[in-house]
Amino acid sequence: MPKFATLHHSILRCFHKCGTVDHLNQTTAILITSGLSHHAFFLADLLRSPTKDLGYTLLLFDRLATPYIFLWNAIIRGFSGSPQPQMALVAYSRLRNHSVVPDRHTFPALLRSFSKLRNENPFQFYAHIMKFGMDFDAFVRNSLVSAFANCGYVECSRRLFTENAKKDAISWTALINGCLRNGRAAEALECFLGMRSSGVEVDEVTIVSVLCAAAMLRDVWFGKWVHGFYVLSGRVIWDVYVGSAMVDMYSKCGYCVDAVKVFNEMPTRNLVSWGALIAGFVQCNRCNKALEVFQEMIIQGFEPNQYLVTSALTACSQLGALDQGRWLHRYIDRNKLELNLKLGTALIDMYSKCGCVDEALFVFEKMPAKDVYSWTAMINGLAMHGDALSSLNLFSQMVRSGVQPNGVTFLGVLSACAHGGLVDEGLELFRLMRCDYHLEPKVDHHGCMVDLQGRAGRLEEAIKFIESMPMEPTPGVWGALFNGCMIHKACELGEQIGNHLIKLQPHHSGRYILLANLYSRCRNWEAAADVRRLMKGKGVDKSPGCSWIEVNGVIHEFIAFDESHTESIHVYVMLESVTAQLKLATYDLDSNILTFAIDGE
Questions:
Q1: How many helices (H) and strands (E) does the chain have?
Q2: Cβ contacts of 12 within 8 Å, gap of 6 or more
Q3: Is residue 597 packed enough to be buried (19+ CB in 10 Å), middle (13-18) or exposed (0-12)?
Q4: What is the tens place of the pLDDT at every residue in 408-434?
Q5: Strand 546-551 vs strand 554-559: parallel, antiparallel, or unpaired?
Q6: CA 169, CA 165: separation in Å to the nearest integer?
Q7: Which of 49, 360, 508, 510 could bond to 15 as cystine, CB 3.0-4.6 Å?
Q8: What does the alpha-carbon distance between residue 148 and residue 259 come to, in Å, rounded to a whole number?
């Protein structure tokens, strides 16, 4: 027995020292060749190894002479939290094949996998739970409530919850989270209010879920009440999870100042809290600030994960920050981050929006797997750069590969057809969208079709198309038709649509500007002046132009007639110099486009 204990201790040390899968396989080989792989103690050590291969361990389980339930529970729990949660179901099947009777710890571990397996059916395991007499165990029932809701069976989850004799914070939170996962945030808040009225004590886990519901509903006042009543009062502990949820809630509600305040006051921070702040700045269109926070996070010693790099790439996409986007790409390669679907799609989108379509295609082709979002990002990238034929060819490849397009995909290909003058192809795609793919076109798709026909000069057809729309045309749809009138100098029709747009959006400066530009294009100077007077009479101010430029990895923002930039003096000196040289060269400004803009300033 002492020799066995010494051997056990030695092998245990080997398992904990395994730094790679190869080292682990070598140690496991010793177990097999020494005839110890059938011993439960050593398999338990293997399951505790940080580099364990669960699939390999499952094979070793078949060699067990006495398959202990605690070992099966451990491997089911391991699979449930792994990237292969479906293997937890396989492990349970093997358990039953070995005639092992599950206990009250087996089913919660198994049902945990359903948080990632939304298309699986939990009812088969519910039957087993009843068969083994565990349907009244509170621990198991709470797991069932969560599993049913995670798979979309919210009503079944509610029924189970209602039948619970004792409803504690765990069961209430399971139901709240189930509503959230199915996009029913309002119901989640109703459950929370029911929890409060029933007298159940609210804990930190519940508060995180409630803050997520407030964020989904953009209900900042409810979120502020939770912040004040539960967090600031000390009713719940302000830990890193609660703090991150508050940062996320304020950010998604557009209250970035409050999000920063909460972030700065957090006692501790982790990657989740940094990610919530960065994503919040991106959502509030403060992408420059998002990149600053990302850099500060790295300076403080945090290593960004795929989610954080994806948020930073989104900020680069919106700013056109190519240098910083390329740096992030190098960071991915240098740190060997897995190019998952979201990260790869973000890279494609960044390169496309920064004008580097070839690099976007390189990333796209390098991706090991592609979903509808990565295909759509590449299709849209080609479309926005005017390569309509390549965009349509890629769409065909996507369909042949078995990936079903979504509404955003069709927006991309319809836009490509509009800019490429491919009217017949666009009309056919619009028909296929409804007939073959059973996607109901939204107002944006109808806007693309109006744009397609307007650019091609088919203005009468575009008008008939608008009249046949099943929904009320938005200003965007009328704007697409007005753009066609501008291109083809259809002054009378353009005048009608322009005046209609002003009635729809009387405080939108762009509507006045476009109508005045149309009059200028048609040489109707008096009408253009009338529009200027109407705009000034209504007190409508033209929004100042804003632009960004990246120089040596630094984003510079410029606003028209603003002198806050440190280099503004030199910029205006250079502008005056360029203007003087243009005058000397007798450069004639295009009055058709710029007359109103210059006079309006």
A1: 34, 2
A2: 45
A3: middle
A4: 999 999 999 998 889 999 999 999 998
A5: antiparallel
A6: 13
A7: 49
A8: 34
